[in-house]
Amino acid sequence: MMVTLSLELRDDVYRGLVMVAEACSIANKQRDGATTHGPLDAKTLLLMLAEDAAMGHSQPGSWEAANMLEVLAAHGYQL
Question: How confident is the model over 27-70, as pLDDT tens digits?
Fold first, then answer.
């Protein structure tokens, strides 16, 4: 089953996501595609982050989940 979400983002937030995704895509190219999700755009960047956050429940010991849980803790969310 797939769920579709719609987000409303401020223009500056979206532009920031695009800039980060572009930088990640450059890094992917420099590493000859040796990244976990390949070239990114804003949508795939958010999808990757959502997957990592969800691992906080399904695979809390993974490095992705541990790092995401650290980010959430920095925002005051202790899980």
Answer: 999 999 899 999 999 999 999 999 999 999 999 899 999 999 99
C-alpha 72/C-alpha 75 separation (Å) is: 5
pTM greater than 0.85 = yes
* Residue type at position 11: D
Residues 60 and 77: their CA atoms lie apart, in Å, by 15
CA contacts within 13 A on the Cβ side of 17: 16
Distances (CA, A) of 11 to 15, 17, 46: 6, 10, 15
What are the φ and ψ backbone dihedral angles of 47, each rounded to 5 degrees?
A: -65, -45
